[in-house]
Design brief:
The chain has strands spanning about 25-30, 35-40, 45-55, 65-70, 80-85. It has a 5-stranded antiparallel sheet with strand order 4-3-2-1-5, with no helix packed on it. By secondary structure, it is mainly beta. The two termini are about 25 Å apart.
Length: about 110
C-alpha cells in the first residue's frame, strides 16, 4: 500500500499530500535548521549542520566531526527541499564526484 521508507506513526493517506521524500545529499531546511541530509531511515533522518576536522587521531578512520540534527518522520512534511549535491545528467560537473567523496568506512555497519 505504501513504501516502507515512511514512518509507521503516520497514516498512509497522509503520504499522498507529502510531496518531498528525503534523500541523502539533499540540502533541506527544517524549522530554523538548514543542512545536508546525512542519513535516511524509516523513523528519522539526520541533517548535517556543521563539520570540522578532528583535533586528534584516536580513531583513524574518522577524519571529521559531524554535528547532526535528528528530524523524526512525523516532521518530514515540514522539510523544504533546497538543492542537492549529486551530479545531474544535464550538468555532470554539479555536486561531488564519486571519486572526490571521502566516505567514512564502516559508517553504517552498526545499523545491521
Amino acid at each position: 500500500m505504501y513504501n516502507s521508507l515512511y514512518c509507521n506513526a503516520i497514516k498512509p493517506e497522509s503520504f499522498r499530500a507529502m510531496s518531498y521524500v528525503p534523500v541523502v545529499d539533499d540540502y533541506v531546511k527544517w524549522r530554523n535548521v538548514e543542512g545536508w541530509v546525512y542519513y535516511v531511515g524509516e523513523e528519522y533522518i539526520t541533517i548535517e549542520v556543521a563539520v570540522k576536522d578532528k583535533p586528534d587521531n584516536h580513531v583513524m578512520f574518522h577524519k571529521k566531526i559531524h554535528c547532526n540534527i535528528v528530524c523524526p518522520c512525523w516532521n518530514w512534511d515540514e522539510l523544504k527541499y533546497i538543492t542537492n549535491r549529486r551530479p545531474s545528467v544535464s550538468d555532470p560537473t554539479r555536486g561531488r564526484r564519486e571519486s572526490e567523496y571521502k566516505s567514512q568506512p564502516y559508517r553504517d555497519q552498526d545499523l545491521y
